[in-house]
Amino acid sequence: MEVSTVYTTQALNSTCSISTPAKTHLGSHQKQVVFYRRTTKSGSGGGSCVITCSAGDSQTVVIGLAADSGCGKSTFMRRLTSVFGGAAEPPKGGNPDSNTLISDMTTVICLDDYHSLDRTGRKEKGVTALDPRANDFDLMYEQVKALKSGVAVDKPIYNHVTGLLDPPELIKPPKILVIEGLHPMFDDRVRDLLDFSIYLDISNEVKFAWKIQRDMAERGHSLESIKASIEARKPDFDAYIDPQKQYADAVIEVLPTQLIPDDNEGKVLRVRLIMKEGVEHFSPVYLFDEGSTISWIPCGRKLTCSYPGIKFSYGPDTYFGNEVSILEMDGQFDRLDELIYVESHLSNISTKFYGEVTQQMLKHADFPGSNNGTGLFQTIVGLKIRDLYEQLTSSKTAAPLEATKA
Amino acid sequence: MATLSSLSLVTTRAVANVPDTTVKVPYLNQPWKRVSQLGCRRMQAFRAVRAAPDGISEKVEKSIKEAQEACSDDPASGECVAAWDEVEELSAAASHARDKNKDSDPLENYCKDNPETDECRTYDN
């Protein structure tokens, strides 16, 4: 069966790699164009070499992740890239202050790179980074669209250390593009490009506790300064960032626990995974049966848990006018067998083998949230994204084959 | 609202030369942070007072002072809000830098760039 497709010259400008003929790194769903070169340019090595280009690789899946600063985006990114395999690292040989992370399958772009005003510019105008006026949404849309259609872009770099906009770096279109930041779903053109979107919704008490943990070791910070910083940013956050959660396909909401009365430490968390119904290629996780309402305490005869224990609940609901299913976990995991017991009773978690969620959680046991619902739901969402990616790529390769059959 | 009465606050720093700040910096019991890190930062305080502000920690401290000044005039103004946003951004950058330094192993970093040197050679048989 031969599939012939016409390539435009623009498509050929996308990622090219010079490889030795023995290496076949292209997967079954990448189109191949092979050139043989006899003449050698200076510095390209002697003899003939095979240049294979993945032309017109329009199968980049784009994922959007929105959260306020200090809310766990980086941790989520590390878990997500780990699900796909390999560690994500900044681009080698480039700007050391680059915010981009690249692994085999994924590239993570920080949307702070699309700030139109640098730190001094924002100070002059009196706007925060949360304000849409400080961001260039046109450029964001153009570049995400280009990457999605397989064209490499020169993306600006926002240097968080100096607060300046550095010279751009080249980003090649990856298989999975993740855009993380404050405004991935703010602009509707960018929102339409996203195949899946996630919002991390941290409640005020938990945010305060997390920021205290993060900042108290810093000289100069005090409780008052941390509180003042959160409160000063709150109006802009509520106006521009928070409304994005109605557009997200999955929301991870983190609240203080209900298991401990008058808890003020904020160590035990209640985490809710709010999953939109009817999203293509995404089937929500459920307990016992879809669409029913369940409350489940796994601790009992088969499993002994230490105080305060674990409580799950699942049920359908509406969220900003959308039909959703909510899976909720309150409490902490203390032992491995608690985790595996819980995993064996969750359905639709898109694992490839029994115990994959537990294995992923254990692999990153040092990450924050590895013993509670934040880590669990982030891992599960990572597996759902992998499932979504596989469904999308298999459906895209099926389409051209069907076209030639007809 | 989370109250922290149950956490023990320890002021362990004896800073002689730090300019007059009325804000104390209590350290929470944070067993997951290495004590040596806190020790190093203490040493940095003595060194950095005379030097011009560079390094992220000094930037954070400077930005907090500026924000407090900007907000003393008008707490609702754009300048005040932008100043606290800058504090937040720098604190996040400082936290990322701390994590990066915590993970990096000097030997591994050297060997990544120079695998052929004697310290970095590996033998498989």
Automatic annotation (TrEMBL), chain A:
Q: Which reaction does it catalyse?
A: D-ribulose 5-phosphate + ATP = D-ribulose 1,5-bisphosphate + ADP + H(+)
Instruction: Quote the subcellular location field of this record.
Output: Plastid, Chloroplast
What top-level branch of life does the organism fall under? Answer: Eukaryota
The Gene Ontology biological process annotation of the record reads:
reductive pentose-phosphate cycle
Family annotation (Pfam families): PRK (PF00485)
**Main location, first listed in the record:** plastid
Q: Which residues form the Phosphoribulokinase/uridine kinase domain?
A: 62-260
**What GO MF annotations does this protein's record show?**
ATP binding; phosphoribulokinase activity; protein homodimerization activity
Q: Name one GO cellular component term.
A: chloroplast
Top enzyme category: transferase
Q: What keywords were assigned to this record?
A: ATP-binding, Calvin cycle, Chloroplast, Disulfide bond, Kinase, Nucleotide-binding, Photosynthesis, Plastid, Transferase, Transit peptide
* InterPro entries documented for this protein: P-loop_NTPase (IPR027417), PRK (IPR006082), PRK/URK (IPR006083)
In which pathway does this enzyme or protein participate?
A: Carbohydrate biosynthesis; Calvin cycle
**EC number, as in UniProt:** 2.7.1.19
Q: Which Gene3D superfamilies does its entry note? A: P-loop containing nucleotide triphosphate hydrolases
Record's family? Belongs to the phosphoribulokinase family.
NCBIfam families, alphabetically? PRK07429.1
Q: What is this protein called?
A: Phosphoribulokinase
TrEMBL record, chain B:
Task: Please name the SMART domains in this protein's record.
Answer: CP12
Q: Where is this region: Disordered?
A: 94-125
Say which species the protein is native to.
Hibiscus trionum
A GO CC annotation recorded here is: chloroplast
Q: Which GO terms describe its biological process?
A: negative regulation of reductive pentose-phosphate cycle
Q: Does the keyword Disulfide bond apply?
A: yes
Which InterPro entries does this chain map to?
A: CP12-like (IPR039314), CP12_dom (IPR003823)
Q: Ranges of Basic and acidic residues compositional bias?
A: 96-125
In Swiss-Prot or TrEMBL terms, this protein is called CP12 DOMAIN-CONTAINING PROTEIN 1, CP12 domain-containing protein 2
Fetch the Pfam families from UniProt.
CP12
Question: Where in the numbering of this chain does the CP12 domain appear?
Answer: 56-125
Task: Determine the domain of life of the protein's source.
Answer: Eukaryota
